[in-house]
Amino acid sequence: MSAVVAEQGSTTPSTPEAVAGLRPGAFGNATALSCRECGHQVALGPFYACPECFGPLEVAYDFPAVTREQIAAGPANIWRYKALLPVPTDIEQSPNTEPGFTRLLKADNLARELGLTNLWVKDDSTNPTNSFKDRVVACALSAARELHAKVFACPSTGNLANAVAAAGARAGIKTVVFIPADLEKPKQVNSAVYTDSLVAVNGNYDDVNRLASEIAGEEEGWAFVNVNVRPFYAEGSKTLGYEIAEQLGWRLPDQVVIPVASGSQLTKVDKAFQELITLGLVEDKPYRIFGAQATGCSPVSAAFKDGHQVVRPVRPNTIAKSLAIGNPADGVYVLDICRRTGGAVEDVTDDEVREGILLLARTEGIFTETAGGTTTGVLKKLVETGQLDPTLDTVIINTGMGLKTLDAVADSVGPAATIDPSYAAFTATGLA
Amino acid sequence: MSAVVAEQGSTTPSTPEAVAGLRPGAFGNATALSCRECGHQVALGPFYACPECFGPLEVAYDFPAVTREQIAAGPANIWRYKALLPVPTDIEQSPNTEPGFTRLLKADNLARELGLTNLWVKDDSTNPTNSFKDRVVACALSAARELHAKVFACPSTGNLANAVAAAGARAGIKTVVFIPADLEKPKQVNSAVYTDSLVAVNGNYDDVNRLASEIAGEEEGWAFVNVNVRPFYAEGSKTLGYEIAEQLGWRLPDQVVIPVASGSQLTKVDKAFQELITLGLVEDKPYRIFGAQATGCSPVSAAFKDGHQVVRPVRPNTIAKSLAIGNPADGVYVLDICRRTGGAVEDVTDDEVREGILLLARTEGIFTETAGGTTTGVLKKLVETGQLDPTLDTVIINTGMGLKTLDAVADSVGPAATIDPSYAAFTATGLA
User: Nearest chain A Cα to B419, which residue?
Assistant: First the structure.
């Protein structure tokens, strides 16, 4: 469980051996971890870097036939897609937070405001801990269990910490969450309520992250969700793509706008769409994927606009903290996908992020966090700049919830009037 | 739309006439408003008090045959039960927040902690604005629309304000929300983000409520969700009962613990169970309903313990603000139901409320607000005092979300350690 790079001994097996002690079907229809760069395959295990080229490992599958009816007969959460995830077939029996199958809202008011014909919001703010992180953490938890991890852990400053602490509590597994010591008190409470093992680290998020990688390498039996079980974790984001397609009536949208932090979510939605086409669950058709960043941390957007194949790291400076990854691990894959599909990567200023939050709340009654404000702001900009076709069916993903980033809009909104408790005082406001 | 008491002209019609201008089927299978005290019936309209005896009006129905399959074929929200609600058959077509069908989590860790055999948590914190209020507001919105209301409104200090402001924004109807002027800034923001028409009132919640009733009586076309369309609004809570039964595999639980503010939710869960039995959707069997209050506002619990038939109003003094109704409208019906079914009403102190919040978070990964802390605390007390049978299948309802009442536990939890970013510093904590 300490391994973070697959062992050198496992050189290019055509059929990788399973890690010792795994029960049959521990990872469902997953067959191996495959290097995204060189294609080298290693056994399913706590590995995230290729032993040949150090490229990122990704879960590979051998899918059986899967029907719409099988999926529809499943539960109203991500496990309806368990055949397409690296989880055992009895995954519903293991205590987990049961995330997913969140609302896909037809957003006619917002569409009208921006001049779009058909727009939907995939709203992940209603997940158990109010962000899409519950999806990926549920898959990481399953991997941690199947790999006999003793500790479930992560470095995080917000949504991920909440999701890991909650999932760990429910699963009854020892959970340790590492946060920067200067994190705002409300965010600390929102994780500490679930666990006695919150560790505050003197330093910034990068320091916390480095410490987590060090512990993952040194300690036996620790599953860091976004480090040594990252390939399993990341697969959870595919469920966003599956749900969008199923909730549209088993068809792909024409355009999707997705926020970009590490870039993983965007690549996994694309992977999900490709899998659904391959499995014959949706018609094969073109779709465009767009990435959304905040200007204060927009390395992928900058690379897209400059026509670069690589992403130059930046030092983040934006209110969109949950997107503030200056050196995004999947940045180059985001560039590939947005270019291949005819999409784009765009960014908006912090003021536009705030406007985006209010726009989504006022038109559709969805209170999003700064990441969702970024995505809404980028949607607006993409339409205004002609990069997105307003006549095509479009979906945007809201990944989190406004109560977690109240400060972003606290000074922008308030009561229209303050009155004495009388009907006369009320009619004087002009609101009657 | 200004009427708050049904007109005297409509004396005891055996088949009440519909209000003029209603489209056929505007209220689905609902047939009339029926007085809970004297049985007098009036037409479906913006009425909440009986013209004969001033008793509360409640929606009456003539249900067709409804099958489990019809329900299962519906959407993953409350509209799967539309045949059992006072809403039109095309309700899904009207923009609304699409609440409901929230998680029913098997709570084995909490059960073990308290010595119960089988326990579930119905978790309404994952609704669109993170409380059960989205259910009732969705039904009120439908009524407001069908009754051609021009304004959608409520007095509230918290969850209801959020739900009304969000639903009104999404529906594109003018929305006015009245709050006490001294409400905490974060709670104001959480409503103001959705609407330009938040009105702060100098006074306490009772003052705000009185003003709302006055406006409802004076202004044409205002639908106050919890005043003049209250009978429709309240029906939304039935969906909690339907979902519990369906998610248990179409059977009723043996015992349910429900928080009591006005008492409406508890009475509607009972009504839902009775309807499911009458419709043959579940087996007829005994069940016990328990009410949960905070000691600082426990008029119904006090009446239950004293053997009284009436509820003596109190002045609330508890951290469980969302339960702090000193003169609960449905208090006597709660007494009736808890006595008839063999349940009880119990209360816990504010310290026990805080303990309840942490207990639910640590065992099941659910971060509840003070109302849920009350329910969890009461569950514990009911077991300890032998009032609830730990061997029977038990469900508790979590009505809201901890991020809204962070202060309740902010001083009780925090990091286990604060360290420098080194592996050596970490191992010294003893957490490795």
Answer: A201
Q: Give tens-digit pLDDT for B155-214.
A: 998 899 999 999 999 999 999 999 999 888 888 999 999 999 999 999 888 899 999 999
Bridge partners for B198 per DSSP = B177
Residues of A with Cβ-Cβ distance to B420 under 8 angstroms: 201-203
Establish if A176 touches chain B: CB-CB under 8 angstroms: yes
Query: Please, is A90 exposed, middle or buried when counting C-beta atoms within 10 Å of its C-beta (0-12, 13-18, 19+)?
Result: exposed
Residue B168 lies in a domain: yes
Half-sphere exposure of A415 (CA within 13 A, CB side): 20
Separation CA A183–CA A192 (nearest Å)? 12
Task: Walk along chain A (432 residues) in steps of 10 and give the mean pLDDT of each run.
Answer: 47 48 90 96 94 96 97 96 97 96 98 98 97 98 96 93 98 96 88 95 90 93 94 98 98 98 97 98 98 98 97 95 93 98 98 98 97 98 98 98 92 94 93 84
Domain of residue B34, residue span: 9-62
Chosen domain end from A230, A250, A270: A230
Contacts of residue B208 in chain A, CB cutoff 8 Å? Answer: 421
| Same domain flag for B209 and B281 | no
Q: Which DSSP string corresponds to B264-283? A: HHHHHHHHHHHHHHHTTSS-
Of B95, B193, B362, the CB nearest to A169: B362
- Give the whole-angstrom CA distance, residue B273 versus residue B284: 9
Choosing from B233, B267, B296, the residue where a domain stops is: B233
For the beta sheet containing A151-155, the strands, ordered from the edge strand earlier in sequence to the opposite edge, are A222-224, A151-155, A174-180, A198-201, B417-419
Looking at residue B15, its pLDDT comes to 43
Dump the DSSP string for B308-363.
Answer: -SS-------SS-GGG--SS-TTHHHHHHHHHHHT--EEEE-HHHHHHHHHHHHHH
Structural contact between residues A408 and A368, judged by C-beta atoms closer than 8 angstroms: no
Q: What is the ipTM of this complex?
A: 0.94
| CATH code, domain carrying B161 | 3.40.50.1100
User: How sure is the predictor about B136, in pLDDT bands with cuts at 50, 70 and 90?
Assistant: very high
Residues of A in contact with B179 (CB under 8 A): 415
Q: How far away is chain B from the Cα of A93, in angstroms, using its nearest Cα?
A: 10
Which residues of chain B does A421 touch, with a Cβ-Cβ cutoff of 8 Å?
201-203, 207-208, 210-211
